[in-house]
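Run log, item B.
One chain of 301 residues. Sequence copied directly from the ordering sheet:
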Amino acid sequence: MTATTPWDLPTVDATWCAGRVDEVATIGYREDEPITPASVMKVQVAIAAASAMHDGRIDGPAPLLLDPASRTPGPVGMSLLHDPVTTTPRDLLPPMLTLSDNAATDALLSLLGVEAVNAATAAWGMPGTWLSEDLAMLDGLAREIGFARYAELAAHDHTLQGPRGAENIRHAIARSAALDPARGSRTTPADMVRLLRLIWTDAAGPAPACALIRELMSQQLTQHRIASGAARGWSVAAKSGGLFGIVRNEVGVVIDETGTAYVIAVFTRQSVDDDTDPRDIDAAIGRLARRLVDRLRDRGS
């Protein structure tokens, strides 16, 4: 069903899907259209990994060394550390879902295998979702636009280090495979609604694994997207995602004061030439989520 709920930032492209956790029906806009997931893909990695640990396919408490020379780059978490980190697979789940830690995600993916995650998404009935590679794709993106690796791109200062301006780099990033769902990783709003429903009903894996993912998503530090639209007394468990200020996404479950759970998936893409403040996009995601929940509440009353 297509929603008439407006997206109130017309210069920023948006797609979405929403529904009650306990119902099949949804409302949405271009909800089956492939989009770039960014770190929203960490939800399927997390539930696949948690299930593998529960079943004994991955040894959750086994020591695991993450060497800085091979750790995946990223803006937060262990990617920023200089020294080797000894942790365990099960302790990689909290930073992956609460901080969106890239190094934690790729360490789990190396144990799981990208093919296993794609097999799981197929089994969950997510035909529009596919993971092309791990987050080391950031280095591939950097090479595609002319840098040796992601760290060089992240450190680039166009005022000091050559003629390539920030605008040129941003245009090149927007054209890269990492931000093209036809060539890189992809999902759809409808697929992510389905996955969250399965997690919230203990149908995506063993019940303890689903419960763990629900708990960790409720502890996400990002609170300025879906959670910003929640009414007092509601709770939100979510996973955000973003790439280079172009893609800004969030999926989550909102539970109202009656205990009714609503699943929301909102994906946005900002034009390279658009000057909308990113904070306004975050706030618009929150407003849209609130309107979608209100509409679903009205329909059920």
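Observations after the first pass:
- The radius of gyration is 19 Å.
- DSSP finds ten helices and seven strands in the chain.
Flagged for discussion on Thursday.
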